[in-house]
Write a structure and sequence with these properties.
The chain is α/β, with parallel strands linked by helices. Helix content is 26%, strand content 36%.
Amino acid sequence: MALFYDRWMSGTPYECWRDFAHARFTEARIPVRDVLDLCCGTGTMTRMLSGYGYRMTGLDGSPAMLAVAHERTLPGTELIHAVLPAPGAIRADSFDGVMCCADSLNYLLEEGQFEAAVQMVAEGLRPGGVFVFDLTTRYALATATGTGDDREDLAYVWRTRHDPETGRCDYLISLFVPENGLYRRVCEQHTQRWFAHDEVRAALEAAGFRIVMVADDYGDQPPDERTLRETWVAEFTG
């Protein structure tokens, strides 16, 4: 997926996400200088936040994604390979801000994994630091439908399978990649789950966070029953 990820994500409003995070970092109780891009993927957000002068670190579970990020990010950007939850993967008290976008935390499927990831973030933040992250909602997973696209150098078919009892949704992806005049099929399955507000609040508060706001998709309005992506902002109180 790393080879095609950026084309897959073309049209993603990264600039909106970046500016929202920058605004929240600017409002923090402490100066935000050192920022962790959690689940950084190919490093798009890492590079974009660098443009605001932050000293960036990226962390991701895919070596292939990190290889692309290494080419994209500024020289000297630290990139860490770790699969969440990853206690001890980052140094304690080393960041003023953490950003985690593109519903990456929805991939934490097993009991206690989300709480452990939040605790890891808390340990890496300095008191007063800010954690900005987004989550795909129950409504989004329940209404997700298959789709497809045929581009000049890439075609794909994307099917979904939602289980209302577990709150999980499987994304069955078939990529068709040109190769020697033919197309090679590459298949992947991605699975996400939704988190209730009470779960998220309990995890944040247990780790020492104060919830600053919950917004509808990096905007200035609260989420409602048809929100597809929620954006959470929390301050680590220490």
